[in-house]
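Researcher: Here's the sequence for the chain we discussed earlier.
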Amino acid sequence: MYQTDPPLSPKEVLPTMYDLPSEYPEDSGLPDEFHLFQPQLLRETFSPPNYPAEEVFVATDLNLYYDLRHTLWYKRPDWFAAVGVSRLYEQQNLRLSYVIWQEGVAPFVVVELLSPGTEKEDLGQTLREINQPPTKWEVYERILRVPYYIVFDRYTDKLQVFQLVADSYSELDLSTPRVWMPGLELGLGLWQGSYQGIERLWLRWYDASGNWLFTPLERESQRANRLAAQLRELGVNPDEL
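Model: Thanks. This is the structure I predict for it:
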């Protein structure tokens, strides 16, 4: 490919999400139930007040292409969120993958849910092999420079939060299993409760007042309860309507 003057931007000359595979045969199989439900709860409660909904993108188990020199290299976070970027690709299409040289915005937070087979890589305890792509830790810390990297072990209910400080991740000392993210005006923590009929500790977003953010179903239930209470005040039994 010949060089132009001035040079074309990577967005113009490198593959787009339409050119790159969204799935690979060698990828692991379908996630287990926890890997389905936990990202769903994160998605349903993620609503940073300082960004309009159309400038928030949330993804689960989506290919994240990060290196414009090696366009087929990717990672597949369990969950991540990018803010200040269009909810839709070029304001019109649902994404097949997230291509960093096309988007121009790196994720603000990445969440990995520990599995026995990926634990060491998730925690930065593996070394990069010669002529192989970098590890997850290297990609999130050194290439994408993701401000917050969250690791949750559902087997031990251990939450670890790594914040980018200067050029490397520093693990936060959590007195309680919560972390506040000023750039999002949201916090993330462990909530004991029932979701999808399962009672356990779940990762969930909370607001500046420390209140857990509602899921759509919870908001609807709250509205229904409030309406029922108003009817009772008027002497009307809502159960008889």
